[in-house]
Amino acid sequence: MLDGINPITILIIGGSFAFLTLLIGLVVSIRAEKTEVDQRLDRYLSAGHVIEQSNKERSAALTDWFNQRVEKSSYGDQISKMLARADLKLKSGEYIAVIVLVAFAVGFILFFLAGRIILMGLLGALIGAFLPGIYVKSLQGKRLIKFNEQLGDMLNLMVNGLRAGYSTMQAMEAVSKELPSPISDEFRRVVQEMQLGVPMERALANLLTRIPSDDLDLIVTAINVQREVGGNLAEILDTISFTIRERVRIKGEIRVLTTQAMYSGRFLSALPLFVMGILYLLNREYMQTFFLPANNTPIPCGYIALGVGALFIIAGYFVMNKMGQIEV
Predict the structure, then answer these.
(1) Cys-Cys with 265: which of 41, 52, 272, 320 at CB 3.0–4.6 Å?
(2) pTM of the predicted model, to two decimals?
(3) Are 268 and 210 within one domain?
(4) DSSP string covering 39-100, please?
C-alpha cells in the first residue's frame, strides 16, 4: 500500500509536523500570561535561586498541557528525576520532544547518506533516540563526581559553623554561599525549601533524590538521627568527613588507574563504526554487498553479519566497563 508513496515525502511531512507543533508550543508558552504566584517566584529567583515549582501551574499553553500529561505517568517521573540529577532545566515533555527531534534529524541525515535506504533511516532514528539519554547520563556522572569531591569541604565548613554556634540550617546556608557549584546550588535549594515550610527531613530527602551519592546518604542519615536522638552533630560530621575524604582519595586513584581500560573500551567499540563509515565513503559498492540478497535468501546475509557484529561490540563494551568499575 505504501509502494506508491515517496519515502522522502513521508519524512518531510513528519518533520514539518513535528517542527510546527514545537513552534506553536513555544509561541503559546511565551505569550501566556504569568500568574501572581509566578511573578512572586520570579522576583525570588532573580538572584539565581532555583526552586522546584508546584505542578499546579497554569496549563493554558500547549507545552504545559503536554508536560502535565507526561509528568502524571511513571515514565515522566523517572525523566524528571533524571533531568534533576543532571541539572538540566527541562521538563519531561520537553525532553521527550528533544528525543523525537534528534531521532528524526539523525535518521533523516543517515537516510540520505546511505543512498535513501529506509532501513538505514530507521537505524539512524533509533541511534538518535538514545543520544539525549547518553548525554544526560554523562552530565549526571560528571556532576556526581564533582559533588562528591566537594563533600569534604562542605563538612568542614558545616562543622566549623556548628562549633561557632550556628544552627544546622544556618550552617547549610553558609555552604550555599561559600562553596562553588554544584554543591552550593543544591544546598541553596535545600535552604529555600525549608524557608518555604518544607521539613528538613523532606528537603534532605529531595536532595538525596537529586544527588544519588552514598556519601551524601551517610551525611543525611547522621543529621536525621541527630535530630531524633540528639548528640554532638559537629563531632559526628567531623568523623564522617575523615571517612569521606579517604574514600574520595581512593576513588580518585582508582579512576586514574582504570581510565585506560574505560577509554580503550570506548575506542574499540567506536572503531568498527568509523571503519564502516570510511569504507562506505570510499567504496560504496563494496559496502552495499551487506544489503544485497544472496542465493535467493529472504534476509540478506549482511544483515545477520552486522547484527552479530553489533552484539559482540556491545558485549565487549560492557565487559571492559565492568572491568574498570571497582567499588570502594
Answers:
(1) 320
(2) 0.65
(3) no
(4) HHHHHHGGGS------S-S---SHHHHHHHHHHTSHHHHHHHHHHHHHT----HHHHHHHHH
Mean pLDDT of the chain: 77
Q: Which pLDDT tens digit goes with each residue over 181-193?
A: 889 999 999 999 9
What is the Cα–Cα distance from 280 to 100, expressed in whole angstroms? 27
Shared domain for 74 and 34, answered yes or no, is yes
> DSSP code of 187?
H
DSSP-assigned letter for residue 179: S
Which phi-psi region, left, alpha or beta, contains residue 223 (left: φ > 0; alpha: ψ -120 to 50)?
A: alpha
Last residue of a domain, one of 140, 171, 204: 140
Please state, in angstroms and rounded to a whole number, the distance separating the CA atoms of residues 218 and 208: 10
Q: How high is the pLDDT of residue 192?
A: 92
Alpha helix ranges (H) inside the chain: 7-31, 36-44, 62-71, 74-86, 92-113, 118-163, 168-178, 183-195, 200-210, 214-229, 233-282, 284-288, 301-323
Region of poorest pLDDT, from 14-23, 75-84, 188-197, 272-281:
14-23
Can you read off the three cell numbers belonging to residue 222?
547522621
